[in-house]
Amino acid sequence: xxxxxxxxxxxEQDYKLRVYKFKQACGNEFTWLDIAEVLNEELGYxxxxxxxxxxxxxxxxxxxxxxxxxxxxxxxxxxxxxYLQALEVKKERIKLSDERTQINAIAxxxxxxxxxxxxxxxxxxxxxxxxxxxxxxxxxxxxxxxVNRHGILCIGDWHYGLDVDLFYNKYSPEIATQRLNKxxxxxxEIGKKEQIEELTIxxxxxxxxxxxxxxxxxxxxxxxxxxxxQVSEIIAEFLTTLSLIFPINYYSVEDNHSRVEPNKKxxxxxxxxxxxxxxxxxxxxxxxxxxxxCENEFGDDIASLKVYNHNIIAIHxxxxxxxxxxxxxxxxLQTHVDMIISAHMHHFSADENNETEFYCNxxxxxxxxxxxxxxxxxxxxxxxxxxxxxNFSEVLYKIKL
Length: 401
Known about the structure:
Blueprint: H1 12-26, H2 32-43, H3 49-61, H4 72-75, H5 80-127, E1 150-155, E2 164-165, E3 170-171, H6 173-194, E4 198-203, H7 214-219, H8 224-243, E5 248-252, H9 273-284, E6 291-293, E7 302-307, E8 310-315, H10 325-333, E9 339-342, E10 349-353, E11 356-360, H11 369-373, E12 381-387, E13 395-400
Parallel strand pairs: 1-4, 4-5, 5-6, 8-9, 9-11
Antiparallel strand pairs: 1-12, 2-3, 7-8, 10-11, 12-13
Helix pairs in contact: 1-2, 1-3, 2-3, 5-9, 6-8, 8-9
């Protein structure tokens, strides 16, 4: 069903009333913005939806009776050639309307991305001179390499910006940086001990506290834009320090706490603060040749990587409950996955099904008020794997922070 177009020889008033009655009959299937767009196109105006909406009230209330006119289509229906020509004209008009709608949607998406990119570049300019993390206390030197040792570091659920003050856990932006300083040292120690030749870092998301729930906004010390700027710089310093020793492959996935709209139903996947973080990192670290930013093959919410000959998938976890996740993703991706890495649950877990291993990364934050109310507790931690050609999880480190 499409909004009616103006008939030949139809007066402006008759056409408006016909459209208003059509809107009344359709209810919410078409918005007043849709109605205004068609009326402006047919009548050559540039009025807002408000003008037409208010006008419709008076016209329908006055029970305006249109002048009796003859539909030109009915006049020529007996002439098959003319009738077919008229149908073709209407079809072309509908096609043009659909194309215009698609072009407008694409233009809006590009405009949003341009705004996000501009925000990222501005944030880089503001944060470049600031240093958040400390230099690692251990001596940095290039280790002698063992053949075929690859590190996989999982980072996620930092929820930067949140303030927590509980019996079992305290967390704040200052505590977050303390834990990250410890994480850098631990990763460097593990990397040197295992003599890895390369390090893959997977950002599993929820790096900021966000604004998706009212308690989060109440318990966040800093606004979501500041959260995004500061955590972006922290990740940039984190990657830079590790890249002094290891070549870095960086992956990331979409999450749920980064969405712009609090209501999930109103949210658009491309409107997420996590995208600003990635744009920031690429701009900030553009001159670091030891860091490679890797693209996702299956979409922004699924990172796929191959370490030696092992197929590894990383997701945030908000769209994929842990129960049945192995069969679900193997079926969806139409290939066998050796390892699935997830986050979102804020605690470590591991499972295996049909030769696919599943691991859930911990959080940097640790216990929050929600977990406390459920009488749940877990220590802050992040995972690191050592992979070899024969075993993608040769060694597993649960780095407690």
